[in-house]
Amino acid sequence: MDTHNQYASPIGRTEPAGSPAAGSEQVLSAERFDETASQILRSINTVIDGKPDAARLALTVLLAQGHLLLEDVPGVGKTMLAKTLARTIDCTVNRIQFTPDLLPSDVSGVSIYNQDTHRFEFRRGPVFANIVIGDEINRASAKTQSALLECMEEHQVTVDGGTYRLGEPFMVVATQNPIEMEGTYPLPEAQRDRFMARISMGYPDRTAELQMLQTHQSASPLEAVRPVANIADIAAMMERVRRVYVSPAVSEYTVGIGHATRGHHQLRLGASPRALLQLLRAAKAGAALEGRDFALPDDVAGVTEAVLSHRLILDRKALSSGETPNSVVAGILSKVPVDRAAANSYRRA
Amino acid sequence: MTSTLPRPLSPATPGVEPSTGRRRGSDQRHWVPTAAVFAALMLTSLNLNSVVLGWTWLSPVAFTVGGVLLVTGIARSLRLPGLLVPVAGVLALVGSLVWQFFPSHSMFGVFPGEGSAGRLSILLGHAENTVVSQVAPVLPGTGIFMAVCAGMGVIAILVDTLATTLRMPATSGLALLAVLVVPAVVLPQSVGVPGFMAAVVGYLLVLGSCQWRDSQQAAGDSRDASGGRLARGLSIGAAALAVTVLVPLAVPGFNVGAFPQGARVNLWGTATGLNPVVTLGNDLRNPNGFGRITYATDSPEALYLRSVTLEDFDGQRWEPDQRYASREQGVEEMGTDAVRASIDTGVVTTTRITTDSFTSPWLLAPYAPVGFTNLSGRWSWDPLNLSIIATDNGSTAQQQYDVRSAGPDLTRELLEGIGPVPDGAVDRQFLALPDTTPDIIRQRAAALTDGIANPYEQALAIQNYLRGPEFTYSVDAPVEGGYDGNSIDVVARFLESRSGYCVHYAGAMAVLARLVGIPSRVAVGYAPGEATGTSVAGPNGLELTEFTVTSQDAHAWPELYFDGVGWVKFEPTPSRGVVPDYAQTTFAPGVPVPNIDDLAPGGNPIPDPGAPTAPGTGDENPQGAGTDSEQARDTSALIAGVLAAAVLLSFVPMLLRTLRSRTRRRKFTAAGRTRGPATLAWAEITDLAADYGHPALPTDTPRTFAVRLAARTGIDSAPGAALVRLRCAYETEAYADPALETHSRWEDVQSVARALRDASGRSARVRALLLPRSLTISTRR
User: Fold this and answer.
1) Residue A318: closest CA among chain B residues belongs to which residue?
2) Å from A255 to nearest chain B CA?
3) What ipTM describes this predicted complex?
């Protein structure tokens, strides 16, 4: 659409005086950021055909330090996306297949009595990894789900009085199947709030599906994926995202969207303040991926559907009239005025 | 379902969310605009008072309009499809008309039943007769009531559909205007400031209520903005009202009425039918003669073509006779015995008349007609005044016919020898006068004929008084003085102000003649036109001299009755027509009579021997000529002034827009590289886009707006790149860290402006130049 070089002075070249950039974290240059991001996206796109937007959103969530919920029917590549994202980064990855008999300790770890040392030793569960893939999370009992959700929120595990920090970066990519309801424990709305964004993969289009059938004949392309970034690179990219400038106008727009969801006549539950915080973080990551060091209202609008729609609860009337959270979000975006203050300033100009 | 990162770039249309009947009461809000439409129509209809006498028409109109709107409102409440609402309105209109005007021919009171069609055609005939034969304000009658109710009902459906169904309340003003146009056209100066204000208030009500409805129906956060829109809509309307009322006061000469009545449109369109008196005045005021009638005659003198006779004087107005029952059918051979007697003894004239587009139910003929040939259609004639009217809804349009006229050979000597009219020789109605005849008329009649006993001498005295130097000919003075018409009061005011046109002269002479006991009536038709210089072969090998008349020759003249010779025409109007030989006289005894035969028959007037004749105005009465030319000058000056003001006003938006653009550019240059220039440049871009019809929406980000603009106008390559540069600079300035510098060039703005102009059609360009829309976009959102 446009290139970042249309904009002046990206972070890393000209640091505004007195900005918090002088911190210890290493900040990636714009070029390096772009290069790494494109490599990751390219790798994902070689495995998941025809879903560049899903890949980009997954990376956005990773860089915004959020967790991702992949929700769709079986077989459209949810797990594949999660695995590919994990493989492009040289970091620890664990996969948990959630089943009804899975216990919280199977996720977080367990203290075992060591006969040799006569002491209890904590044996780390699969949650101790940089990227945790939780497959079919809605098959586990509510108790087990809660154990994972606590880890997501706190980035730590507390077992038998001991607290164990999780690795950084830490991202949970959970998948769930919304169609099959028997023997599942759907995530309560409050817990869905922990996920920064939800992606519905959708079926690939005809061409992409044909391409997929051919490339997946001989060997899984996943095997060919090699890491293109290490943990340090990702941390630096995250730091760059954190420093993306958000003007008051963009914050006001974000708040405007939040208020519109809360007062909306078709919604029983609107967006929480945490949701708006995550919306803005995702928008910052989106801006950084576009090569900008400041966020635009377009960045916010671009991620609003993914970030908000799984948190909104429609009222009965809206449901019966065929509304979906996505359509409500689209309606809200078409009504919330952009940037009253800036508009006024240029109208008066 | 797929989440996509980039937001769909085409902004979704606002307000698409189905309301899903959120509140039960919300369905009934349409009643508010409907009520406003009712109020507006009733307020506007008040102006009809000037075309229909009295107020008795008001309740049928209110019933009809109210009924129609009630039914359309109920149809909306029942959620009928939008298309069916006006249909329901039409049904309601038919029902209310049947209920009011032919209940005895109806089924259940509202459905047209047996005989309805016949009754309808009778009422329509009445209405047509009223419109054609009466002078506004017409007398109330069932026919005219039905016509007014039907018209208002149709307008009610139109306004309601525009304002409520189509949501175009502003356009509904046109339909309201249609109501105003009727009185304004029929009777100049009839739409006064109060009536016009009433209509405007009604219009504002419709606008305001529709804005209220829209704001109520708009969802969520736009409530405050809508309130602003309501206020803005009303303030624009109020400003327009103020301008409408104040501009006429400010522009010199534009001081008559509030409605543009100077146009004096001819209601009868291209047809040049002669609706008595007022149409006549309108025809005369039209600077360009229109319509063309040619006649060829073997008469040595130019002829007056008579259309109708006004003889019924009830004090309100001169009116044509209403003796439909006593009319005789067939005009091949016609005329009373007395008239036919002069075929052998008097002068017989043969005339061939070609009417072209002249349309009137009355047949044109030189007085007194005794037989027609080659005439199509069915015609009847009145034995008392020999006026000929179509009986089968026919008209004079596109006819060529031959008429024979006969009359005694009138001379001064013959007329001088005739005494007063004996009682019973002529119908009493030709002597009738209202009891309220003002004293000034009585005194004037007495003074003029003091000491004169001979009826002919009395008539001459009256004619010569009116042709005298005190009187001036003016088609505009009565309109401006507010005494246009032909009631007894108008005659009185005319005698005071001594300025008017043929209707006033003829009416005054007829009234004065009746006061001194001479039966009189007013003939309406055409004064002799101009000879075309060609001859035509007529019936029986006659050679006929051809003349042509236009609407400018429309004329009214008095006819006085003399015992034994019948009706004799006089010419009291200075500068119009030709004074007959027998009616010429001198102002002082002994002075020789001017030779009238020297005058061209083309409507050239008698030179007034008592007044100096200005060179170059030989064909006009000097007073009349002077006044006419002054009036013409005044009118031209007024028109020129109004045109100049209009032209100047039309450039005001362009000047304001240019000024805004210049100011921005100056600030842009001054701003240098500090914060601000990109914002200025972007403001100019959004304004330019709005001017060319692509305004930014409140929900637009700079990016969605720019993408839409590029897609709609096809801007690409260099201007496209310039647009991207300007957008990026503005985004940086508006959203990035304030410490960052921005770079934008005004050349980019110019490049985009050129591309926008090139991408627009001619009309869009003219509009962008003269009526830039960006001026009307509020600075507050």
Assistant:
1) B20
2) 13
3) 0.81
